[in-house]
Amino acid sequence: MNELYQHRLQRHLRQMLRYLRLVFNDHFVIALMFFVGGLGLTYSNWLKTVGPQDTWIIAVVGLLLWGGLGIGRVATLLEPADTVFLLPRERDLHGYLVHAWHYSWWLAQIVQVCLVILTLPLLVLVDKIAGAALVALLVTQLALKDSQMTLAVTHLYRLTVTAKRWSKPLNWLVALVILALGLLVSPWLSLVLALALAGVQRVWHNRLWPHSVVAWRDDVKLEANRMLGIYRFFNLFTDVPMVQGSVKRRRYLDWVLRWLPKDQAHAFGYLFSRGMLRGTEFSGLVARLTVIGAILLYFSGHGWLAMALDVVFIYLIGFQLLPFYKRYDNIVFTHIYPLSAKRRLANFQRLLTNVLSVTGVIFLAAFWLSNAPLVQVGFLLVINAVEIYLLVAWYAKLRLA
Amino acid sequence: MALTVSHLVGGYSQIPVLKDISFEVQPGELVGLIGLNGAGKSTTINHIIGLLTPMKGKITLNDVTLATDPQAYKAQIAYIPETPILYEELTLKEHLEMTMLAYGLDQTAAWERANELLKIFRLDNKLDWFPANFSKGMKQKVMIVCAFITNAKLFIIDEPFLGLDPLAVHDLLHLIATVKQRGAGVLMSTHVLDTAEKACDRFVLLHSGEVQTQGTFQEIKANYPDAGESLNDIYLSLTGVTRHE
Predict the structure, then answer these.
(1) Is B69 an 8 Å CB contact of chain A?
(2) Which residue of A has its CA nearest to B81?
(3) pTM for the full predicted model
(4) Closest alpha carbon within chain A to B133
(5) Which of A40, A243, A378, B195 shows a CA-CA span of 20 to 30 A to A134?
(6) Does some domain include residue A337?
């Protein structure tokens, strides 16, 4: 069991590393450095204006520390198949979970330390806490997180309905009271109370688990949700296979579909248009790039830079939409419908034209709103029309036919 | 003559799975394609619906081949796959509409038939749902409805009986009888031999990519008098699989 967790953790970390490498590519790191730098500068400038008179800040810091306790969950790395294959070794699972607990504990506490360090200047400036008292407050925060982690592990076992429902809210409430006492009365008092709370949670856990059954189903679901959250985050930057292809009904878009022709010549168009509007993958791509492009266009002012941006973004969207043509290739009916490949391509080109035209119009509007002279707007209109024509009639055909 | 498969050699790679297969499906006839797992049933079907190209031999459907006129060939076929396959982004209603558009059906007449079928299979209150989220049996019913609203001359049904409830099996057999009456041929692969024995007009028994024997149940029984009484017995003895009893 010990080896099993180590083995899974290694696999998990390797996977996370792979995604992180994709997320933190060169351009993103540069952008992030500017972003963090800017944020830091703003924060430090703001700190200069803060003094002991701003007592409301104590409440904000308190809430920040309290809410920050929610960061960091137990990474059990359990898989659905475990409910079958590990079931016979349920007793030994505690050893496995302890490993998960330790790994998650360190990860969560590092985040907590960062959080306290970030709020440190405020505490010094406003609350006049200093020296050893600051350490006491830091340890308070860590002990509170420890109590939460212990409780989270306890919750991996099947509890009574009352314990299951109330233990977590109760722990949150006690943590809030302790933090308030620490900030308003004395960090030393909160230190003692927080350590006591952590101790109570540990005692409860050790008493409880030997007589409890593992809540297999809940644990597996919890872990799946945790991973999905991580994948969703990565999916903002890169394609994650585990998150792809969810479908939303989006009834409010049905009016768009009513405009489109419904006959044998446009049968694939019928499919493509619905797939485009309801699948989150490609519609999300178009929406994201259109919004980002429009914002950039608006702020880059009128002129050559804006026009170049417009051309690049329309190309990017058109280019990334091409794989959508093959989206239904693994569905047998796509091949056995009595429809020619030529019609299918023509239908796809029509879809591409429609999508890119909408984007083009939005870009034109952004360009116009940035006070561009009408001549330039007209010029950009011509550029867009030519680009879309080339993309659809020539490039798409070249790549797909 | 509806479907003619003559001397078909084919498969997925260089090595042929099907070795010289010949059979016919006449208009108004239900032919059962019988065989063990891996005997070549699905491969045969994939060749007929045009997913695979024959290495040798010819498949003709009312004098049209896939090579000469793919559209006319495909327009004559309705296919019900073994595992239901659906478009994730289309509702049940849109699946039907898509089928109507693809086959160029008259909307009014097709909807009349569709509503009838939806009622039979108790799907008429689920028109606005995504069938991709249905249970397996219900998805299969969607496939059946989509296939039977067409005016196909040949229905190809891959293992329809597993996953359907007894009522649906009954209704499906009834539907097959109806299209037979209007002159359509049906080719059906299945493992459920008792049902096949009762329902099919003729049988094609495949074994290791070859046609072991074909004909009506009576013909097959007459040819192999010692093989047993039921299709089940005959089939098992013909395949030469020794059973441990």
Answers:
(1) no
(2) A332
(3) 0.72
(4) A247
(5) A40
(6) yes
Closest CA to B96 of B116, B76, B77: B116
Query: What's the pLDDT tens digit per position in A168-204?
Result: 999 999 999 999 999 989 999 999 999 999 999 999 9
CB contact under 8 A, A267 and B101: yes
- Those of residues 101-160 in B touching chain A at CB distance below 8 A are 101-104, 130, 132
8 A C-beta contact, residue A183 and residue A62: yes
Residue intervals of chain B classified under CATH 3.40.50.300 are 1-76+154-167+187-235
Residues of A in contact with B90 (CB under 8 A): 271, 274
Residue A109 lies in a domain: yes
CATH C-level class of B1-76+154-167+187-235: alpha beta
Contacts of B91 in chain A (CB under 8 A): 249
Q: Point out the residue among B73, B89, B132 whose CB comes nearest to the CB of A274.
A: B89
Question: What is the nearest CA distance from A326 to chain B, expressed in angstroms?
Answer: 13
What is the value of ipTM here, to two decimals?
0.92
Measure the CA–CA gap between B186 and B230, rounded to whole angstroms.
22
Residues A267 and A293 both lie in one domain: yes
Domain enclosing residue A114, as ranges: 2-235
DSSP code of residue B243? P
**Within an 8 Å CB–CB cutoff, is residue A244 touching chain B?**
no
Report if residue A242 sits inside a domain.
no
Q: To which residue do tokens 């007459």 refer?
A: B222
- Domain count for chain A, please give it: 2
A90-137 pLDDT, tens digit each: 888 999 999 999 999 999 999 999 999 998 888 888 877 878 889 999
| Rounded-to-integer distance, Cα A381 and Cα A385, Å | 6
Give the pLDDT confidence of A214-234 residue by residue, as tens digits: 999 999 999 988 998 888 778
